[in-house]
Amino acid sequence: MTTRYSEKSPETGAESRQSGDEATRKALVSGQLPSFTPIATLVVSIVVVAGVLALFGSFGIAMTLVLGFVTFLVVMRVLSHVVEGSRRAADRTARYVVTGAFVLALLPLLSLLWTVTSKGVQRFDGEFFSSSMFAIVGEGGGAVHAIWGTLIITGITTLIAVPIGIFSSIFLVEYSNETPLLRKTASVLRFFVDVMTGIPSIVAGLFAYTLFSFIFGAGYKSGLAGAVALAVLMIPVVVRSTEEMLRLVPNELREASYALGVPKWKTIVKVVLPTSVAGIVTGVILAIARVIGETAPLLMTAGLYTGMNTNALQGQMTTLPVFAYYQYVTPGIPQEPYYARAFASALTLIIIVMALNAIGRYVAYKFAPKTGR
Amino acid sequence: MSKRIDIKNLDIYYGKFHAVKNVSMAIPARAVTAFIGSSGCGKSTVLRTLNRMHEVIPGAYCTGEVNLDGTNLYGKGVDAVAVRRMVGMVFQRPNPFPTMSIKENVLAGMKLNSKRISASRQDEIVEKALSGANLWNEVKDRLDKPGSGLSGGQQQRLCIARAIAVEPDVLLMDEPCSALDPISTLAIEDLIHELKEKFTVVIVTHNMQQAQRVSDQTAFFNLKAVGEPGELIEVGETEQIFTSPEHEDTERYITGQFG
């Protein structure tokens, strides 16, 4: 017989209630630093470090921030250890390091946004959105042809890649475990999808170029060829993200639906997909964001044209990244208008991606399973 | 080791939703207190405020006092982690850690808090906790197998073993037997009887026979109407509640006329 809980240790009945209460208080309550302490410490640390560095004549913003942050960590650790105890001191250090890493990760992004916005806003005007570069040398002109090109090519890419990608992942998650042969096929497919997510985009461009040259003759370039090249890049991303999302749907939900006599396809369409729609939409948006900025495969497949072309089946088509690239790499004289147009197209591209993200989030929010009371 | 709890004017919210209104009661040490009441009346919510698990849900908060041996758990400078080391919890649905073996699951409370324990002491703790939860005989030959491979009832007893292995001062149980067969339920009830000699136990249950069998004190919660916050209707000695309740609603509930 093992020890029983009631005989766990000798009874300490003599222990008075008073001292028990005191022990509980000691174990639970510790001092607490006022809520403004971290911010105050951070500011003081940075100011002090800046002062010290200035004294030695080696003041620099990056150096000050890094050393200031380290000082802040040390001071907070000591303060918290004295006032709040060792566990909470460690908690604070970890918390600030994690927050610091987040801020550090954000800095390049903010810097990029600032650069593109400040340089791009110069040509972010009516003419930029109303005229193409047809027969324009030097100043003026716009990117309306490239904006249309981007929207058309990315749109066709999405139309090709999203159904194929989502259907493939439905196969992988819902249908591939029925027979051993299918299971084997699925694991091979999954391996190749993983390889595909890593292929360089230029390979996709070469593939589409070869394919279309084979069908329509050498040198064929069009928006459709560009869209196919991008779809090759986009499909594996959609497959992988959708597959992960479908796997997160608990099996109990599928069983609940089967138990109601609902057929498998309807279970997938009405129960599994709606449950995971938020994640799937996010995955699709990320996949679009990945291909919308591609340059290399489009140079090869969609080509470059200075005028407006909305026919994806015929004629070359320019997209914003390609346009920005060419404006920046092959400026005329004077160079400034070309650079300005390059940055304005970059800004436009960022805004398009942001808008897509906003729409995607709204859609995901609308369709996501409702929680809360 | 055991600790008493005094709840004073506790109001519990989920964001804007007022879940439980103005609860005041005393939970004595070395005794079993049962919470009964219909679904959705806030029993589990009150239970979760007793070890500050309520605030884990985003937007959830509460006002009022929960005093553990006179120390307000929601007072200034109280460390929620320290609270949870004293007040253990067993959940309604079994939740063994899927990446850990049965043995590791039982020892999780110590191992995750990086306490060093000798191998012989570990075996002792594992056997004691699993025996306490009436699981030892079933799993003693496969302690290194994953805990998620057990049946639902076994998983729940594993979770109980995990909670008692750290020997908390107070043990909160949220419908611990709702997934168990009668034999395991009996074993758990025996365990509760044993536990109360050293620990304070609070149990939420829908089984009124169980409340009568295991508890010394019973609290009845109820909703005035749908959408209204839950309220504590009546609390008293279990025998008194089940034989001569003061409140009409309590009588109707325990005699099965509603809920």
TrEMBL record, chain A:
Record-level GO cellular component terms: plasma membrane
SUPFAM superfamilies (alphabetical): MetI-like (SSF161098)
CDD domains in UniProt: TM_PBP2
GO molecular function annotation: phosphate transmembrane transporter activity
Membrane topology field: Multi-pass membrane protein
Domain of life where this protein originates: Bacteria
Residue ranges of every copy of the ABC transmembrane type-1 domain listed in the record: 147-360
Main location group: membrane
Sequence segments annotated as region (Disordered): 1-21
Compartment(s) where it occurs, according to its Swiss-Prot or TrEMBL record: Cell membrane
Residue spans crossing the bilayer: 42-75, 96-116, 146-171, 191-216, 222-239, 271-292, 338-364
Pfam families from the UniProt entry: BPD_transp_1
InterPro entries (alphabetical): MetI-like, MetI-like_sf, Phosphate_PstA, Phosphate_transprt_permease
GO biological process: phosphate ion transmembrane transport
Biased composition range(s): Basic and acidic residues: 1-10
Alphabetized UniProt keyword annotations: Cell membrane, Membrane, Phosphate transport, Transmembrane, Transmembrane helix, Transport
Functional description taken from the UniProt entry: Part of the binding-protein-dependent transport system for phosphate; probably responsible for the translocation of the substrate across the membrane.
Similarity comment: Belongs to the binding-protein-dependent transport system permease family. CysTW subfamily.
Record protein name field: Phosphate transport system permease protein PstA
Organism name: Propioniferax innocua
Automatic annotation (TrEMBL), chain B:
Pfam family, one: ABC_tran
One Gene Ontology term of the molecular function aspect: ATP hydrolysis activity
Coiled coil segments of this chain: none
GO cellular component annotations of the record: membrane
Domain ABC transporter: 5-248
Keyword Transport: yes
CDD domains: ABC_PstB_phosphate_transporter
GO BP terms: phosphate ion transmembrane transport
Keywords carried by this UniProt record: ATP-binding, Nucleotide-binding, Translocase, Transport
Family matches, as Gene3D superfamilies: P-loop containing nucleotide triphosphate hydrolases
Protein name: Phosphate ABC transporter ATP-binding protein (PhoT family)
Top-level taxonomy: Bacteria, Bacillati, Actinomycetota, Actinomycetes, Propionibacteriales
